[in-house]
């Protein structure tokens, strides 16, 4: 796995979440740079909300 780079505010490596046999997340790696606005785009059921909630409260202001 790659190491996070300097200036990263949030770093995730190998996130996996399943619901029964369905994979919401499978081996997800993500680095979000500090001081920038980021968005997750994808179809319904793609795992966007699951990914955001895995980081815990205070990381994302979802509306």
Q: Give the topology string: H per helix, E per strand.
A: EEH
Structural class: mainly beta
> Helix proportion of residues, in percent?
10-25%
- In the sheet with the most strands, the strands line up as 1-2
Please characterize this protein's 3D structure:
With 63 residues, the protein is mainly β. It has one domain. It is 11% helix and 38% strand. It is built from one helix and two strands, in the order ββα. The chain has a two-stranded antiparallel sheet with strand order 1-2. A hairpin with a 2-residue loop joins β1 and β2. It is globular and about 35 Å long. The termini are far apart. The model has no long low-confidence stretch (mean pLDDT 75).
SSE map:
Elements lengths: L7 E12 L2 E12 L14 H7 L9
Could you provide a short overview of the structure?
The chain is mainly beta and 63 residues long. It has one helix and two strands; from the N terminus they run ββα.
């Amino acid at each position: 796995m790659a190491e996070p780079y300097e200036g990263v505010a949030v770093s995730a490596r190998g996130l996996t979440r399943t619901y029964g046999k369905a994979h919401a997340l499978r081996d997800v790696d993500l680095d979000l740079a500090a001081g920038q606005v980021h968005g997750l785009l994808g179809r319904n059921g793609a795992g966007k909300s699951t990914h955001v909630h895995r980081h815990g409260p205070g990381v994302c202001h979802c509306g």
